[in-house]
Amino acid sequence: MIRYDLVCGNGHAFRAWFSSSEAFEHQREEGLVSCPVCGDSRVERQITAPAIPAKGNRRKDEALQVSSSASPAGDDAAQHARLMRQFVREVHAMVRERAEYVGQRFVEEARRRHSEGAVQDQPIWGEATAEDARELREEGIDVVPLPPLPDDRN
Ligand SMILES: [Zn+2]
């Protein structure tokens, strides 16, 4: 079973379990996955922790949106998945190189640096929940979700 953090077209975040990623994609395409709050079946995967604040770094934002796009079917899907894993590794490598890891202190560090105006110069990354990320965004702190590092089981 795989747990997915999902978000509906109206922005409600929720969690659901699927037997496999294929099962999730299939059910989603059939409109069988719907938001428990409003019933919307326009459901996307929400990539959660770890996260990095990226004030003034829109390029990474765009790149990360690519990673959450739906996979094409068949052989293309395997190819897509391979490219995605490679992409995610590169993002992680870049983040590790550029940003300071603050682990569980991410939320407090992000707030502190934001209040000091230091986010731009000293990017950080660490652990945050989708909820934390949303609260930070509401406070005007840009947080970019980082896709989980892929394992190599397939
Ligand atoms: Zn909803």
Give structural notes.
- It is flat and about 50 Å long.
- It has helices at residues 21-29, 58-67, 75-98, 106-116, 130-138, and strands at residues 2-8, 13-18, 43-45, 51-53, 100-103, 124-126, 143-145.
- Strand 1 (2-8) and strand 2 form a beta hairpin.
- It has a three-stranded antiparallel β-sheet.
- It contains five helices and seven strands; from the N terminus they run E-E-H-E-E-H-H-E-H-E-H-E.
- The protein has two domains: 2-45, no CATH class; 51-145, no CATH class.
- Zinc ion is lined by residues 8, 10, 12, 35, 37-38, 40.
Q: What are the SSEs and their pairings?
A:
Layout: E1 2-8, E2 13-18, H1 21-29, E3 43-45, E4 51-53, H2 58-67, H3 75-98, E5 100-103, H4 106-116, E6 124-126, H5 130-138, E7 143-145
Parallel strand pairs: 5-6
Antiparallel strand pairs: 1-2, 1-3, 4-7
Residues 8, 10, 12, 35, 37-38, 40 line the site of zinc ion.
